Amino acid sequence: MLLSLLAACGGGGPSGFFAPTFPDNRPEDLEQVMARMRAAPPAEEPAVAAGLADGQLFAWDLMGGRMMWQQPSESRTAPQIAGDLVVTQEPSGVVAWDLRTGAERFRTEDEAMHLIGADGEGNVGAIVLSTGGGVGAHSRLVVTRAGDIDWDAEVDYALGKPAVRAGMVFIPWSNQNVSVVDSDSGRELARLRIADDVVAEAFSAGGEVYTGQSGVFRITPSLVSGTRERAAHFTPSVGEMPGRPSFMRNAYQPPPSPQSALHRIRLDWYPAGSGEELSLADGNLYLVFYKLVFALDPDGEGVRWVYEHSADVVGASARPGGLWLADAGGGIAFVGAEDGRPRPAGDLGVHPVVVRFRAAGDPPSGSAEGEALPLRDQPPAAAQSTDARLVPARELAIRHLAALDDPEVTAHLIVLCESRN
Question: Phi, psi at residue 63, to the nearest 5°?
Fold first, then answer.
């Protein structure tokens, strides 16, 4: 069944989808949503990576260390993994590919909108297209089931990146709202309104759903308060980073092209804690800056380690225990959260420009490479890199080096001052 309804011209989409009179922040509505999530089994999905390389879209089995398939693609954005689909925006429109085989499942016109994001769980998926912006914004939500379009709806709002969990679609919209929609009927189940922060992206992790932009909220009963102070909320305090990467992407803006440097300069993290306590897994906020990776204390208390990869990082995904990396040379590796030592996990055999992970499951087996250097020796190694693109990150490394309380740091700083680089 394919529905396409304008909210401004008919009072909403399927079953009152995005009706202007729907009440927000009702505890009884959110409790029904939470009960469905608690009752739903954990998602059992293969750990995969999807990327673009040399005019090809590909999928890689992370646990098996093998290429699953490749298909010609001219995607204008990074691929999105949405349940049993991989979604791209081609010149002809939005295309959904079978995650396991690479077969094309469907394509649909984008109507001059951007592919904002997609997500899925099992055979249920959600795709958001939007013009972005504020006044005059127009968006389309496409809900998929078993590899085909089940229904869609159009609204005159800017929609953000969706999340799918327990047969429900969580959709940020118009900067301050999150609607929870039943994927079967399209009926809106609950609506949250955040009064003191922006919500642009939603995602699921460990059976929970999160939303936010400059900070992150876990969707729990306390979120009916509509405030950061009374909700399960976390915002890092690390100051300005080189390249100014965002904590979460502003999904109301057009997504970056596959070749954009924004894929190589980014922050990565994974949520931790339970209930109303929210923090970052392993206490790490990862800054990727081309070849350099920093594990930062998210509370602004310094750097835990610095690692220089062999090639530019074009994809990263934090998990408990560390960070998956894909590089422009085709390498796949897992960098340990504790000491930043890498464990190689495969060679793609292609040279990707961007890679996205769905990195469920355990880290790869095998021993980490090299020895863990003392922290005082890691920033100097990064600061002495001759890659001119790394200058802002090298300066960050020196700042963190100078903050260390270690007598040998002075000797390192003298050597750096004497270097023309």
Answer: -75, -40
